[in-house]
């Protein structure tokens, strides 16, 4: 009987498929240029699930590089349903963010201006990371959004709240015990009270994201002044929703966390569009399962390829070696010629100044009477 029970449990375990980890990915086009297909002509792409590797290949193409050779024919077809078929019209800049703790933001805010017009597809998150294959580091600038916040003041919180169109009222008796109020669409206000640990940590993570975006924009300003501007990818993850999930109920997460995060992302994307002149595309992956700290779904790797600079250095080195050989040969030829000329002149000089006596060689064959 026990053997039969074990067999039945094993059969049920393997017979029913286990739930796969899935999420959603949003491709947000530029406000001034079109790099992605329109939403109306892409219904098939929205209904068909993508793999993380296909999302990574899409990012590589948007940066102006070829997709990996390991991409399947089905994967190439999915990329074609997302991207405009024009290899000469790529933004060469991508804002990529992984948000854990949310499956689909449109469930919470279906009228969101940014995500409502974006291309949406479900994504199979799988159990391993996916790689974004790029060329060497000189061809691509990678800016991380996962840098820690560090020290900050209440003035930073006031500026951040003002940037979101809200306010922060500090507590005169105790620092970092104020109240932040942010107006959000379809909700009167989102109020975050800093004395509550979950609220304070959530605000600090939003502030860290905002600061890192500012740093990325500053770096872009420096890169735009160079003669050969590299492709740029701004990537990172946001796990602030996990803090609210651990300490608040689900309704509280939807109202406080998701709506405020979507409002922040909308403002951030507006900043990036202005800074990049519309030459940037957003790729945001939502994962309903909170990820452990320091664990991300996407990873950047550099493929090895002989760069034109390396080939130029090799050619220059070969030319330098050949020139050195020619110089040595010419120097030896000139030295030999000069030595022979000096020897010839000395020989003629001594021959002309030789004394004509009987014991000289000039008279060696002369018979005297």
From TrEMBL:
Coiled coil: none annotated. Pfam families: DUF7794 (PF25070). It comes from the Eukaryota. Residues 1-19 form the signal peptide. The chain crosses the membrane at residues 332-352. Residues 22-287 form the DUF7794 domain. Keywords: Membrane, Signal, Transmembrane, Transmembrane helix. GO terms for cellular component: endomembrane system. This is DUF7794 domain-containing protein. It comes from Gossypium hirsutum. The lineage of its organism: Eukaryota, Viridiplantae, Streptophyta, Embryophyta, Tracheophyta. The gene is LOC107897032.
């Amino acid at each position: 009987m026990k053997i039969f029970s074990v067999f039945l449990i094993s059969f049920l375990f393997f017979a029913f498929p286990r739930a796969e980890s899935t999420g959603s990915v949003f491709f947000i086009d530029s406000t001034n240029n079109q790099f992605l297909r329109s939403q109306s002509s892409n219904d098939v792409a929205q209904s068909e699930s993508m793999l993380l590797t296909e999302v990574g290949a899409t990012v590589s193409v948007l940066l102006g590089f070829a997709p990996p050779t390991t991409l399947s024919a089905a994967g190439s077809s999915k990329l074609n349903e997302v991207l405009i078929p024009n290899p000469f019209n790529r933004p060469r800049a991508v804002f990529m963010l992984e948000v854990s703790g949310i499956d689909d933001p449109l469930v919470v805010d279906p009228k969101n201006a940014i995500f409502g017009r974006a291309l949406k597809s479900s994504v199979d998150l799988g159990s391993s990371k996916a790689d974004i294959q790029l060329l060497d580091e000189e061809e691509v600038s990678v800016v991380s959004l996962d840098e820690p916040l560090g020290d900050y003041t209440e003035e930073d919180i006031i500026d951040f709240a003002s940037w979101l169109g809200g306010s922060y009222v500090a507590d005169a008796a105790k620092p970092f015990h104020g109240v932040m109020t942010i107006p959000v669409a379809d909700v009167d206000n989102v109020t975050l009270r800093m004395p509550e640990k979950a609220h304070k940590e959530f605000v600090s993570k939003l502030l860290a994201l905002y600061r890192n975006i500012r740093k990325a924009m500053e770096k872009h300003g420096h890169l735009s002044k160079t003669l050969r501007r590299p492709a740029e990818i701004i990537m990172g993850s946001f796990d602030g929703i996990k803090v609210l999930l651990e300490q608040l109920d689900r309704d509280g997460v939807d109202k406080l966390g998701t709506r405020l995060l979507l409002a922040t992302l909308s403002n951030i994307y507006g900043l990036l569009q202005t800074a990049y002149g519309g030459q940037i595309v957003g790729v945001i992956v939502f994962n309903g399962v909170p990820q452990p700290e320091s664990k991300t779904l996407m990873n950047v790797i550099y493929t090895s390829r002989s760069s034109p600079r390396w080939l130029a250095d090799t050619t220059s080195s070969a030319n330098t070696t050949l020139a050195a050989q020619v110089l040595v040969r010419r120097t030896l030829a000139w030295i030999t010629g000069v030595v022979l000329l000096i020897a010839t002149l000395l020989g003629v000089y001594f021959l002309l100044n030789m004394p004509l006596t009987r014991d000289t060689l000039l008279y060696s064959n002369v018979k005297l009477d």
